[in-house]
Amino acid sequence: MAAKPTRQPDETELAFARLAETLSKDPRVDPPEMARAQGFGSKGLKFARKLFVFHSKGRLVVKLPSDRVAALASSGEGMPFDPGHGRVMKEWAAMDFASKALWLRLAREALEFAARNAPPKPNRPRSTAKRPNRPPRGNDHRAALLRRSSPNVMKTIVGPEGPR
Asked: N or C: which terminus of the chain carries fewer CB neighbours within 10 A?
């Protein structure tokens, strides 16, 4: 059986790869190994595990404020992004390869937008202490509580023969 011919990346994919390489130098951008997901934007760039730019069908897709997406659409520089199911995503703009000169500027703008809207980092490290033992759920929870008590208390509450 003959091997499938290897698909060569097109010009837009190469342009996105160069853009991704440039933006990846910013320490705020997540390293590529954090993007383990598949599907929507799996090959994009992320900030705090949130996607902010990716390549789709020859277009650059960036996450920007909805009013900025509307401004790009009205100027003709971009259009609201439709992932293909007919529902336009209001905070995502898509730019064709003809607008390649804007790609880096808009990708940086998307990074800044992602950085402004990221959830705050916690001030304290997570506790590694174990939680206290909790009684098991179900009908036997009272007996489990009593077993932790002294043997005399158990005899007083349930009788000398123990739980039924």
From this structure: N
